[in-house]
Amino acid sequence: MSSRERILGRVRRALAEVTPDERPYEEAVGRDYLREHGGRTTEQTVELLAENLADYRAVVHRATDEEMPYLVMRLLARRGSEEVLVPPGLPPAWLAAADPVRIHDRAASTAQRLDRVGSVVTGCAVAIAETGTIVLDGSPDQGRRRISLIPDHHICVVRVPDQVVSSVPQAFERLDPARPLTWISGPSATSDIELDRVEGVHGPRTLEVILLS
């Protein structure tokens, strides 16, 4: 008897004692896990988001509607970006004070062209406090997935507290699984076998998050 036959035989014997469950999958699989860990106020949830974003090496800023255009202007100027990629539904006021040339997201734009753009500014669909994760779903203020992955500098705006949730289960309740979801936890990074961290491998090297109140 081969090793394969021996393993499969053990599996068959183990399954023989399992009573078939004819219930629908939604009933057979328990969904009684915690929807969030601990009770937090809205302010505490936003603070937890900021803390976890920073822990993932994202740069966190805070702004009001009045401060927003000038903050974006300073961030782009500090980065030295001559061009900024703009999703079609981005609120014009966010870039009202910025100097860089606006490059609009078009289907004809190649990856090589987008790679020459210094920065991209987007909104988001939801932000998860417990994991420090921002989710984009391709809505007009976020654009297609590739515009948030190719430029080396991503400025992402989170409206607080409306777009902030505590946990992943709460985020799923707000998201449409049929949309192109991009989950972002800090700037793109990877590590080799010696744990040398390299940023900017699969997406932006720098992620700046503006918590807009």
From TrEMBL:
Domain LUD: 47-212
Domain of life: Bacteria
SUPFAM superfamilies: NagB/RpiA/CoA transferase-like (SSF100950)
InterPro entries from the UniProt entry: FTHF_cligase-like_sf, LUD_dom, NagB/RpiA_transferase-like
PANTHER family: LACTATE UTILIZATION PROTEIN C
Name assigned to this protein: Lactate utilization protein B/C
Lineage: Bacteria, Bacillati, Actinomycetota, Actinomycetes, Kitasatosporales
